[in-house]
From TrEMBL:
Protein name: Aminoglycoside phosphotransferase domain-containing protein
Residue span(s) of domain Aminoglycoside phosphotransferase: 23-218
InterPro entries: Aminoglycoside_PTrfase (IPR002575), Kinase-like_dom_sf (IPR011009)
Matches recorded under Gene3D superfamilies: 3.90.1200.10
Pfam families: APH (PF01636)
Signal sequence interval, chain numbering: none
Amino acid sequence: MKIEHICETLRKENVIQSKNIHFKKLNGGSSSEVYLVDNTYVVKLNKKEVIEEEVNFLQKYQGVKMLPKLIYTNLAEAYLVYEFKKGDTCYPRKNKQLLLEDLVNNFINKYEMVSSNQTWGWSSSPTDSWHRFLLDRVIDAKEMLKDKLLDNDFSIILTLINKKEKENNDAYYIHGDCGVHNFIFHNNKLSAVIDPTPVYGEPIYDLIYAFCSSPDDLTKETIEAASSHLIKGNKSGRDLYEDVTIGLFLRLATCLRHHPADFEDYMKSWKYWREIVAK
């Protein structure tokens, strides 16, 4: 699908009023094709099922100011249009604690519970439990990390994951890819969250995902301060530390795939958190 054809469709549908439409291609991540149109709209193309999942999320949380407003959808041609949010994705490594607190107060605390706790994991391919979803992700990460970590590291993570089997928490409809790479910053402040990959899970999963998505300030004090603002699914103490350790393990594998230069910094944090949960 060519952007010229899409722009002409948007003009005919009165989504765009100008006769001379200007567009430029943006960095759309690993799979999406993304364009900025007239400095006002973002056009995003991907597989139909991916677009549909994002549309569902944006429609569900259309009143949340941190999310861009959905303007137009064409599932038949696999694209959506949403409002352009001023700013950029360059994460200013200044105060992660304030960033996370802002994220919790203005985004994560807006999440809604799903109607049935029998559905967990990716909304596009759910599983029957949160434990199963996390275990599958850990198994994938283990394969990626097999030459980087000790056998004892894997044993620690499996022990923590297996404790999840006994939990009976509520499932919420959450972002699923809530990292700094999907944050828009304006005047050095968080202004928007984009590109959801929706998950039925615990709100704290998105907080920990954000916490671990950059290697700076991965301290106990930072995540404790941010978690204290959660009004849905808040955790503290050892329960929080164990969830962070699982999240950091998953992040180690992601780092190797996409940001290998950060791996040594993450390993320092891994040793720090491994000692915390070992006590």
